[in-house]
Design brief:
Blueprint lengths: L6 H11 L8 E4 L5 H9 L15 E4 L3 H13 L5 E3 L2 H5 L4 E5 L4 H14 L5 E7 L5 H10 E6 L6 E9 L12 E5 L4 E5 L11 H7 L11 E5 L5 H9 L4 E6 L2 H13 L6 E5 L11 E6 L4 E2 L2 E2 L2 H13 E12 L4 H8 L1 E8 L3 E8 L19
The protein binds S-adenosylmethionine (SAM).
S-adenosylmethionine binds next to helix 8 and strand 11.
Length: 383
């Protein structure tokens, strides 16, 4: 079932279908519910601007998020729409005449998308990027203007607007999009690689930094570690260095994060130890199979504050941790996660804190997990 669309979807769809079916491939990027992809498939079923026969390559969808990729794939498959679900952005937009996306929150994410479209799409491509007016900034126009000769904004409809970019500026021969990027952090002894949408880019978030400062306290005998929501892989890489005998699973819902982590781990000499996975849950790891989980959970979903993902991650961690295993989490001090961690995982202490963040260590109850995220022996908590 296709999820209900919103005003941004509607204005993007109206702008996309105006002028009819393009003569070449069409790509949707990060269409979270599959609505746009499916609506375009329906709008143009059986018609092509060039008179060519539609084939499977005509309509492509690319999603960075594993959960959104699944939702969009389910929606289009259930409706019987012929859509190629691409595994790379460059593959999705190659030779495209039309690219439709919702504006990402970060300018770096938009920059990488715009650079990729400008380099790989047709010279006559039209890129449509829609968003809520309150979330749109002048900087978004400026980013698009770096990669396209023409950028204009549509009229606003229901507090939403579309930026229309045309006349892509091709990169110099032999040069592609300037991503991923890297930065050396001498104070941490780490080199970070980051795609545009990766959390904190090539920088180091203050919460991540605080959790990094605690990794020398991980249990020395740990052989299986998970960095849950690995971003650019700083925690996974530092944990691998701290525990050279351990296998570190670095998982993230975002493809860009997983690719960034692979590059970061390799750059720091622990590429063989860190196993990256594009996962939005730990369902593929068995119960009681992990010694340590480290996690800096997301605090936002897109532009909205949302604790849902963090709470699901804690339950996931509780399931995979062996009795006595440890979950290390960093979060903003105002978030009410301490009682949740005690209830869902087990005994929890504050390992360190600063004016903004808490780092906690939760120990999985000794009576063994029930596989449902419920605590096994957390009734009395010393902290
Ligand atoms: C606050 S960032 C932390 C990134 C990195 N660990 C760090 O400290 O720099 C949270 C990360 O969780 C990822 N994420 C969000 N929901 C997720 C889920 N359900 N499963 C796995 N990762 C998720 C996001 O893509 C993001 O990379």
């Amino acid at each position: 079932m296709n999820a209900p669309e919103d005003a941004v979807d509607r204005i993007l769809l109206a702008e996309a279908v105006e002028g009819g079916r393009p003569s070449g491939p069409v790509a949707t990027v990060d269409d979270p519910t599959g609505f746009l992809t499916l609506a375009l498939a329906r709008a143009w079923a059986g018609s092509t601007g060039s008179g060519a026969t539609p084939d499977e390559e005509d309509l492509r969808a690319y999603a960075d998020s594993a959960a959104e990729d699944r939702a969009a794939t389910d929606a289009t498959t259930a409706a019987g729409a012929v859509v190629e679900h691409a595994t790379t952005l460059a593959g999705a937009v190659a030779d495209a005449e039309l690219v439709v996306l919702r504006l990402p929150k970060s300018l770096a994410a938009l920059d990488e998308i715009a650079a990729t479209v400008a380099a790989a799409a047709s010279p006559t491509v039209r890129l449509l990027a829609g968003g809520r007016v309150k979330h749109m900034t002048r900087g978004m126009n400026d980013v698009l203007a770096r990669h396209f000769g023409s950028v204009r904004a549509s009229l606003g409809v229901q507090k939403s607007r579309v930026l229309v970019a045309e006349r892509p500026v091709r990169p110099a021969p032999g040069r592609g999009p300037d991503y991923p990027r890297s930065e050396r952090h001498e104070d941490l002894g780490l080199t970070v690689w980051a795609h545009g949408s990766a959390f904190a880019g090539t920088g180091v978030d203050l919460g991540t930094r605080l959790l990094l400062s605690q990794l020398d306290r991980l249990p020395a005998g740990a052989t299986t570690v998970v960095d849950l929501g690995c971003g650019t892989g700083l925690l996974a890489t530092a944990a691998a260095r701290q525990l050279p005998e351990a296998t570190v699973w670095a998982t993230d819902d975002s493809r860009a994060a997983v690719w960034s982590t692979t590059a970061t781990a390799r750059a720091n000499g622990v590429g063989d130890q860190v196993r990256t996975r594009w996962w939005d849950s730990l369902a593929d790891l068995g119960p009681a199979s992990v010694d340590v989980v480290v996690c800096n959970p997301p605090f936002h979903r897109g532009t909205a504050k949302d604790s849902g993902a963090a709470l699901a991650m804690f339950a996931d961690a509780a399931r995979v941790l062996r009795p006595g295993g440890e979950l290390w989490v960093v979060f903003n001090s105002h978030l009410p996660y301490l009682p949740v961690l005690r209830r869902v995982v087990g005994s929890t202490i504050v390992a360190t804190q600063d004016p903004h963040y808490l780092v906690t260590r939760s120990t999985r109850g000794r009576t063994g997990p029930r596989g449902d995220g419920r605590p096994t022996s957390a009734a009395s908590d010393p902290s």
